[in-house]
Write a structure and sequence with these properties.
With 484 residues, the chain is of the alpha/beta class. The protein is built from 20 helices and 16 strands. The strands form five sheets. It has a seven-stranded mixed sheet with strand order 4-10-9-8-7-5-6, sandwiched between helices. Strands 11-14-13 form a three-stranded antiparallel sheet. It has a two-stranded parallel ribbon with strand order 1-12. It starts with 7 loop residues before the first helix and ends in an 11-residue tail after the last helix.
Length: 484
């Protein structure tokens, strides 16, 4: 965790007092909050997209900034009385620019999908809307004739996006039909080499030349290797596309200078989106970084895409980003990758098959179908029963589909925050392997083979749960917080 306060009792008092106030209104909510921290203290949390925010970040979200409406952006609000919100948003953007070396930062998005929507519509505004306004000789869409407006609306809907396929590790918000992004764009996917599981840049280049997308999206949620963003930008420039990178998963590795040069997206992409939790260890929220050419369009995110900003969350983003600018955050980011590699080695040594054969970042993807004869859903449930929290995930060309899956995704940001190191990762690999080699596929109520049900000896589940609990007990979560 970030540096503890000089007087830890102050932090305990703050959280205890807050829960007492909440309990006076709705005790069930106070109990749920208290139980959540108790549960998290006992969990062996390996979900790659989860982490633990600092007490300072958590406390920043509970204040009077929540009461203020602030549509617009700094200095250009639709509501009066926003000077303090302007300060908060400016500080958050300042920290983001300095941390990532970005020309411009926008701290308002409420989530990762909101950040992506801001980015999509900023590019559409720049590449599609602005030329249409210029041709019509007007400055605003409200000044377009009905015929010109109908033509522009049709043009918005006819744009193409090229993004990483879901089974290769891409994300639903990168143009897939169940998500709004897939309803906005004509989308095509690029994938990975079937033999290596690695990105095939030449195949991607060929697809981009044929498809001619407006936007190429890079970034992933379940790809355990690095992406060369210099090559991605070369491909985008060759076909006249805007390169957008969603670094939500690995932003902490960029902030911590583990990913630099060709593997840092900020110098190469015109626009970069991220969440502020995950490996960045901040509050749940989103953010957009961009070059100067897109700054004005991005700053119109509210009300173009977003509703009223959440000033209390922007304040928490500013605190978390300030923490990430400290030298110790670089040590943390490197430890995340070291732990991820150690976990991979521990699993492989015990016979597990990993997608791409290992990792270069914060996550691993275990092929549990090949390794253990289980679906991802069965493996996820067996591990959860044993005190190990993961999530099922598709693997390339997954025979079990996106719901049951053949993979389990595991990540190290949260456990690294607690202080666990490479020695503990090997022990965790042993626990995972013990559960999955013992678990068996279950059957349905009618006795047919099931992709969801599993069989696991309760004694083994209890044994692993106790071992997992004992392991994390040596690395207390929020030791400065005693709720009494």
């Amino acid at each position: 965790m970030p540096d503890l306060p000089e007087h830890p009792s102050t932090v305990s008092t703050a959280f205890r007092s807050a829960l007492e106030v909440i309990r006076g209104v709705e005790p069930r909510i106070a109990d749920a909050i208290g139980q959540e921290v108790a549960d998290q203290r006992e969990m062996l949390k390996l979900i790659a997209s989860e982490n633990y925010a600092s007490p300072a970040t958590l406390l920043t979200m509970g204040n009077w900034l929540s009461d203020k409406y602030a549509e617009g952006t700094v200095g250009r609000r639709f509501y009066a009385g926003c000077r303090n919100v302007d300060t908060v948003e400016s500080v958050a953007a300042e920290h983001a620019r300095e941390l990532f070396g970005a020309a411009h930062a926008y701290a308002q998005p409420h989530s990762g999908i909101d950040a992506n929507l801001v980015a999509f519509w900023a590019v559409l505004a720049q590449r599609v809307e602005a030329p249409a306004l210029e041709r019509a000789g007007v400055r605003n869409v409200n000044d377009l004739s009905e015929a010109d407006w109908a033509e522009l609306r049709q043009a918005f809907g006819n744009q193409r996006m090229l993004g990483m396929s879901l089974d290769a590790g891409g994300h639903l918000t990168h143009g897939f039909r169940p998500n709004i992004s897939g309803k906005m764009f004509d989308q095509r996917s690029y994938g990975t080499d079937p033999a290596t599981g690695l990105l095939d840049y030449e195949a991607l280049r060929a697809s981009a030349r044929e498809f001619q997308p407006l936007i190429i999206v890079a970034g992933y949620s379940a790809y355990p290797r690095l992406v060369n963003f210099r090559i991605m930008r070369e491909i985008a420039d060759e076909v006249g596309a805007t390169l957008m990178v969603d670094m939500a998963h690995f932003a902490g590795l960029v902030a911590g200078k583990v990913l630099t040069g060709d593997f840092d997206p900020v110098p190469h992409a015109q626009i970069v989106t991220t969440t502020t939790h995950k490996s960045l260890r901040g509050p749940r929220g989103g953010m957009v970084l961009c070059d100067e050419s897109l700054a004005d369009q991005v700053d119109r995110g509210c009300p173009m895409v977003l509703g009223g900003p959440l000033p209390h969350v922007m304040a928490a983003k500013a605190v978390a980003l300030a923490e990430a600018r400290r030298p110790e955050f670089r040590d943390y980011a490197q430890a995340v990758v070291d732990n991820s590699r150690a976990l991979a080695e521990g699993l492989k040594r015990r016979g597990a098959t990993l997608v791409t054969g290992g990792t270069d970042n914060h996550l691993n993807l275990i092929d549990v179908a090949t390794s253990y004869g289980l679906t991802g859903r069965q493996a996820e449930s067996a591990l959860l029963e044993s005190g190990i929290v993961t999530n099922r995930n598709a693997i390339p060309a997954d025979p079990n589909g996106a719901w049951y899956t053949s993979g389990i995704r595991i990540g190290t940001p949260a456990l690294t925050t607690r202080g666990l190191g490479t020695a503990e990762m090997d022990e965790i690999a042993a626990l995972i392997d013990r559960v999955l080699t013992t678990a068996e596929p279950g059957t349905t109520a009618k006795g047919a083979p099931s992709k969801a049900q599993h069989i696991l000896d309760p004694k083994i589940a209890d044994e692993i749960s106790r071992r997992a609990s004992d392991l994390v007990a040596g690395f207390p979560l929020y030791p400065e917080i005693d709720l009494g």
